[in-house]
Design goal:
Elements lengths: L4 H12 L1 H26 L1 H5 L3 H33 L1 H9 L4 H41 L12 H27 L3 H5 L13 H20 L3 H36 L1 H4 L2 H43 L1 H8 L4 E7 L2 H17 L6 E15 L2 E3 L2 H6 L4 E8 L3 H5 L9 E5 L5 E4 L2 E8 L16 E7 L1 H15 L5 E8 L4 H20 L9 E6 H54 L4 H39 L6 H35 L3
Parallel strand pairs: 3-6, 4-8, 5-7
Antiparallel strand pairs: 1-9, 1-10, 2-3, 2-4, 2-9, 5-8, 6-7
Amino acid sequence: MRKGMFLRLALTNIKKNRGTYIPYMLSCMGCIAVLYIMMFIVTSPDTVNMRGGRDVAAIVSMGVFVLGVFSVIFLLFCNSFLMKRRQKELGLYNVLGMEKRHISHLMLVETVFTGIASLAGGLAAGILGSKLALLLLLKILHIPAKFGFYISWKGIKVCAVSYGVILVLTLFNNLRRVHFSRPVELLSGGNAGEREPKSKLCMAIAGFGCLGTGYYLAVTTESIIDALGVFFIAVLLVMAGTYLVFTSGSIVILKLLRRRKKFYYKLQNFTSVSGMLYRMKQNAVGLASICILSTGVLLMLSTTVSLNMGIEDTIRSQYPCDVNVDFHGHSPEEAYMAQEFIRTELEEKNIPVESVESQIYLSLIGVMEGNRLNMDPQAGQSQTQNITTLVIIPDSFSEQVTGEKQDVPEGSLLAYGTEENSIILENQEFKISGRLKKRPEISGQLSMDFVKTLYFVADEKTFEKINQLQNEAKGGGYSITSSIGVQVPGDDAAAIECRQMLNDSIQKFKEQGYFAQEQDYVSSRSYAEEGENFYGLNGGLLFVGILLGGVFLMGTALIIYYKQISEGYEDKARFEIMRKVGMSRREVKASIHRQILMVFFLPLITACVHIGMAFPLMKRLLLLVGMSNTRLFLICTAVTVIIFAAVYGVIYAVTARSYYRILEKAE
């Protein structure tokens, strides 16, 4: 062939198919731009040197991996749609005399051209948007903005290599399809799938079974320890169930409706059910993909937004005072000594304080068997769902944690969280003589929310006896916590200075021989300093959630757009047939419009169901990162769903124009 012919032909093909090529190239640019922005954040000196920078870099790095996997799947899917739309065109080239090697050469030129254009556009958008993204991240982290410009050459390299691999995969897939197809198959490729779909009852049952099992795991899992492992299993089950239900379950349901003669033999139902059978066969995988992407967007945005909005509550639940000093040991005597030591240091060093709050409690962990606590570590490994923590509070500190002074009969306990009349520890029974009106407020409560926790108030002798039993059962180790919280007047700097002074005193105290056992330790933390770590973690999650949510939303929009085009060309023939058999233009339009609405809003409805079922499990998972405000999470989830539904509707309305434009040509 003449020199330059392939390039001219490729440019002509792209121009004539711009309705499908331009959205595809824009999507490639979007994925490349976001990938560059993520790499820019990971490698930028501003990120490395800022507070919480390591946490942010680690979280964004995980986002890079997720984006890479999504990009491969998403762009291969889009490319398969492009090839399906062009099968007749490629078959015609073959019939007119072009050999398969010529078609392969043509496709190579098209791939190289679109690849270079997409990579250049994506990198340009990424470089220009990287500074804005960094400013957004700094805003989320409550860090003053910095001026300057930086280009991540590593980010450019990663984008070029990653996108190059995807282009090679798409090219080989296209060449494979052309090489193993005959011209007649290519010419008739656009008509594939016109036979009535078969009912695959086993696959439909498996799909509903996967969905039901995934939902059951999400709703019934109580243990926070098990929640993380259950989450990934539930996600895989729901994803598999979604694809099976859309591809097979929908066909089975539609055929069951068709068997109901009173329902089926009505004009609206007849055309709708018959049309939906073919639509679901041809579009089920794409609709399931839209559903999964929509669920991903909703999960990421609702969780990350709620984490960021509830960050102050999270930090205060962990560090209720400006400065928090915790001693963990095995001896009640040293616990009281730690309390006295901190108070003495505050007085001798004239450290200004507004108030001092103190607590002492004993923690026992084991497997609850009736009213008996089994503290054998082997039992905990095999019965994680029954792991329980017992918190024992001496009555001398009961007022600090319950709000009122508790009078406890000697040798007995006051309880919260259990209806048992006694508790057995190491074959010794302790009677419960009364109930606490509300849950005690324990410093660092979050760590106790991971498992079921029972609270007790005991007299001093009983407190020491239970501690002795715990030491004998586990051979020593720390279980007593002595906590002091100090409220400091002034700003964060004053609190940090107070913590540093107490830290120096604690170090000298340890050098004098106190807290000598290896299991004992004492630590001090300030609300201001620890808050930086929380902002780094939660802010990084929100930032990645926004970027990935945007990419997933872009993917959803493109799939919907391609589906609208596909539906338009298929409905064009159906429109003509319906008109020929006597249906009015109004009846035909109403029937097709109803089917389109059902098809494109079914994924949104299913995604909302997924979110509702996942809510109990996500609520428990958020406890692992410090989020315990269920009401806030519920509000954020509801608002996210409403906003996403509105955006989804806008996307549908915009892309529907292409559909109706194609359909109008049949009138």
